[in-house]
Amino acid sequence: MPSLHNSTPAMAQCYDTPEGVDIRGRYDPEFAAILTRDALAFVAGLQREFRGAVRYAMERRREAQRRYDAGELPRFDPSTRFVREGEWACAPVPPAIADRTVEITGPADPRKMVINALNSGAKVFMADFEDALAPTWENLMRGQVNLRDAVAGTISFRDAARGGRVYKLDERTAKLFVRPRGWHLPEAHVLIDGEPAIGCLVDFGLYFFHSHAAFRAGQGAGFGPFFYLPKMEHSREARIWNGVFERAEMVAGIERGSIRATVLVETLPAVFQMDEILHELRDHSAGLNCGRWDYIFSYVKTFRAHPDRLLPDRALVGMAQHFMRSYSHLLIRTCHRRRVHAMGGMAAQIPIKDDAAANEAALELVRGDKLREVRAGHDGTWAAHPGLIPAIREVFEGHLGGKPNQIDAAAPVDAITEEDLIQPPRGARTVEGLRLNTRVGVQYLAAWLGGSGSVPLYNLMEDAATAEISRVQNWQWLHHGAVLDAGGVAVRATPELLAHVVEEEMARVQEEVGADRFRRGRYKEAGRIFIRQCVAPELDDFLTLDAYGLIVVHHPRGAASKL
C-alpha cells in the first residue's frame, strides 16, 4: 500500500464500530448513518469469509500474466468445455429489467448528477463506484448517502448556483444498477482485522445492507438489488461474487436469486470465460456487457511482452477491428444462448452546445455505432450523457419493433475462433497519437487526483479507462521501440521523444485550461506520475492503484477533521 496522508483531529467524534473494524476516514453525521455498527458488521463478515478466495484469485491473475509474458496466448479452457457445450440457461430475466435498451452511466456522486440520470429517460442508470468515481472518502460516502436516498425516493438537491433550484425525482425513473469497484482495489479508509478492506465488498455491502428491502419493494418489483461487476478475468472471480450474493441473501432473509448482476467483459482473458462466468452466476445473472475501452487496455496489458501485437493509434481501435468485432459477436451469442441480455458499449460523446454542425456530426456517429450494435444483436447500450438518449432510443426501438429485447433472436452459426479474438489490430502509429495519449492521460489523472473520476475532455466524457489506455499504449510503444509517423517522417518511440512530447503537451494543456487553473490543479503532479508509468521497465497493472495513496487521507480513530 502506498504511503498515506494523515490529518490532525479537530474534535472527538467517532463511528460506532464492531470488533476488528477501524474507520480511518473523516467523521460525518451523514456518513455515520451509513457506517452503522450493524452495516459494518455485515461488511466485515463478507471480508472475513471471502478474503482468502480473493487473494487466491489475484495470485492466479499474476500467474496467468507470467505465462502470457513467457509467450502463451489466452485460450478457451479445455477443462470447462462441458460448460461451453452444455445445454443450460440462466435464471429468467426479472420483468423489471426486461427492457434495457438505453442505459446511462455516471458516478454515484455528485447528488444532482444522480437525480438527473435517474430522470434522464434511460431505462437504467448505472451508478458507479468504479472507473467514473475517484475513490476519495468523501466521494464514496456521499455516493452511499445518495443511493440510499435514491432508493427510498427521498433524494433531492438545492442548487444555489441556479437560484436555489430544487432537483428531485420524477414519478418514473430509470432502474438503478450499482457498480462496485473491482476485486483488486482496496479501501484504505476501512480497516478490518488490521488490513484495508476489499473495496468492492465495502461498496456492495453498505449499499445492499441499507437498501435491499426498499429496492425490492419498489424498483425491483420483488427482485434486486441490481449490480454491474467490473474487471473480472476468470470465472473463479464470478464464483466469489456468487458466494457474496448468496451470503447477503441469506443474512437478509430474502429469496435466493433476488440479486442480479451484469458482468462487464472488459478484460481479454474474460472473453474466453464468458460461458463459465455466466454459469457461475446463473442464479444471479443479468447478462454481460461489452466494456470495450477497458478491453483495449487489457489487450495491451495481456500482450505487454509481445512486440508483434502493438496497437495503432487508439482512435483507430474501434469495433471495426476484427478482434473487437469478434469479441462483441461472441458475447451476444453467448448471452442469448443462456437467455440473458447482451449489452453494448459506451457512447462517450457529450453535446457540443456552441456548434450545431459539430453536434449533429457527433450524434450521427453515435447513431451509426448504435445501429451497428442493435443489428449485431445487442439488447441495449450505454450512454454517458442524457443528451444522447433520444437518438439512441430511436435507433434501438426502431429496430426492436416494440420488443423489450432480442434475446430470442436466432444466432449465427459460424464459428468464432481463438485467433479471431486475439488478431492484432491494424492501423498507423503516429507521434500525434502519442501526443493525444499524453494530453488526455495527464488531464484525466489531474482531475482524478483532484477528486473527479468522470471528466469532459474534447467533447467526450472520459473515465479511468481513458487514462489506462493512454498510458499503456505509450508504454507499449516505448518499451518495444515502435516506429511512429511524424508527418511523413519515421521516428522511433523513445523516452527522449516522450519527454519532448510531454513538455509541449503540458504547455498546450496550460494554455487550454488557463494559467490560474493549471497552477491550482494537480497537472504537474499528474504529469510526473504519467511519465513514470510510461517509462517504467515493468508495466503496472493499474494506474489508479498506483496513484491511490495520493488521495487517501487517514484520520486518527475517534477524530473528525475541519472541513
TrEMBL record:
Location(s), subcellular: Glyoxysome
Span of domain Malate synthase N-terminal: 19-81
Any one Gene Ontology cellular component term annotated for this protein: glyoxysome
CDD domains documented for this protein: malate_synt_A
GO biological process: glyoxylate cycle; tricarboxylic acid cycle
Every Malate synthase TIM barrel domain range: 175-423
PROSITE patterns per record: MALATE_SYNTHASE (PS00510)
Reaction(s) catalysed by this chain's protein: glyoxylate + acetyl-CoA + H2O = (S)-malate + CoA + H(+)
PANTHER family documented for this protein: MALATE SYNTHASE, MALATE SYNTHASE 1-RELATED
Protein name as it appears in the record: Malate synthase
